[in-house]
Specification:
Helix content is about 55%, strand content about 10%. The protein is mainly alpha-helical.
Length: about 150
């Protein structure tokens, strides 16, 4: 599997850097349909975008594990960005795969996300920004119903 081979080596190096530099953040990371990598990847555009999404999710997960903020670049991938945020927030972080024994703080979706997410080069619409804000609010207040606008989206 080319994706695993490509990502495992850099992921290990990134983790080592985070361990050696406790004050650093993770970034710039993100999703970009216009990136040169996407246009020139030997496996084609679809494979490049899949790899980019896989790598991004791993970077977010690693940043969360080490409680680091991230700087995120997003161009023409706004729906995918929110989907990946949702997936990472809903994935268990228990490394022994025993969800019954999961620590209480790991059940909090914020513990599965980086400590802060700074978006830049975000080319999304006001509606997409509203979707991100509604998602964040739902994480903070899971018992509250979504607004009528968010429910219709």
């Amino acid at each position: 599997n080319d994706t695993a081979t490509v990502t495992d080596a850099w992921l290990h190096r990134l983790e080592e850097q985070l361990q050696q530099n406790p004050g650093c953040m993770v970034g710039e990371i993100g999703l970009c349909k216009l990136a040169r990598f996407v246009r020139t990847y030997a496996g084609g555009k679809t494979a490049a975008l899949q790899l980019q999404r896989h790598v991004f999710a791993q970077q977010l997960t690693l940043a969360a594990r080490y409680r680091r903020p991230v700087s995120v670049h997003c161009v023409q991938q706004h729906g995918i960005l929110l989907d990946i945020f949702r997936d990472v927030a809903s994935t268990t972080t228990n490394h022994n795969n025993n969800n019954d024994d999961e620590e209480p703080e790991k059940k909090d979706p914020f513990s599965r996300l980086p400590t802060a997410i700074a978006l830049h080069s975000f080319t999304g619409t006001a509606h997409q920004v509203q979707q991100l804000l509604e998602w964040e609010d739902k994480l903070r207040h899971p018992q509250q119903p979504l607004s009528k606008k968010a429910a219709a989206a």
